[in-house]
Design brief:
By secondary structure, the protein is an all-alpha fold. It contains eleven helices and no strands. 67% of the residues lie in helices and 0% in strands.
Length: 195
């Protein structure tokens, strides 16, 4: 999905960005000049899908906080569900601004980000304050039929930065329901004997 750009930011994006200039745009994220970093980020956002994998890689491996920040910001704009696992990892980034942008990006993805967030919470939520805080932000305003009871329990459990037993059970049950729904969708897409 290529995001719409405002007239102000459209002027900053390179004309006709292609995958040929992907490397140049990624390099711009590390520039010392903030306006050049912004221009690179906007160009990557304009590229859309081809930029997702390099942005995820940068988010997880770049030593420069500006690169990680720009990657998180761009991924938040792109809202590509394939970036959710990298964004979940970034909830524990050593730079709180990067972690915050990752949480906002995951929140904006909605239910498409739930599975990796829930799995991260189940795997690391007891030990990681940052994971609990990020998950709390992601789920703070989420609603979905069939999940509201569990969302309420999960939000209450995370409210004070703890993952209570009830919160862990709610996260596991949400993940089970999501998997069951995905399995049911897959089952419904199987060819039947008539076709």
């Amino acid at each position: 999905m290529i995001p719409a750009q405002s007239p102000r930011t459209r002027d900053m994006a390179p004309e006709n960005p292609t995958s040929d200039n992907l490397s140049a745009l990624m390099a711009m994220l590390a520039h010392k000049d903030g306006l050049i970093r912004k221009k690179g980020r906007i160009g990557l956002e304009a590229l859309g899908e081809p930029a997702v994998a390099p942005l995820c890689e940068a988010l997880l491996t770049a030593k420069d906080r500006h690169v990680r920040w720009g990657a998180a910001k761009a991924l938040g704009t792109l809202r590509d569900p394939r970036s959710a696992p990298a964004l979940v990892e970034a909830l524990e980034d050593r730079d709180s601004d990067v972690a915050w942008l990752a949480a906002v990006a995951l929140e904006n993805m909605g239910q498409e980000a739930w599975r990796p967030v829930l799995q991260g919470l189940i795997d690391r939520g007891v030990d990681s304050v940052a994971m609990r805080e990020g998950a709390h932000h992601v789920f703070s305003k989420q609603k979905a039929p069939g999940f509201d009871d569990l969302l309420d329990t999960l939000r209450e459990a995370l409210e004070f930065g703890e993952l209570t037993e009830a919160g862990g059970i709610a996260a596991s049950e949400m993940l089970r329901r999501l998997r069951d729904a995905a399995d049911a969708d897959d089952w419904g897409n199987l060819p039947n004997e008539n076709g």
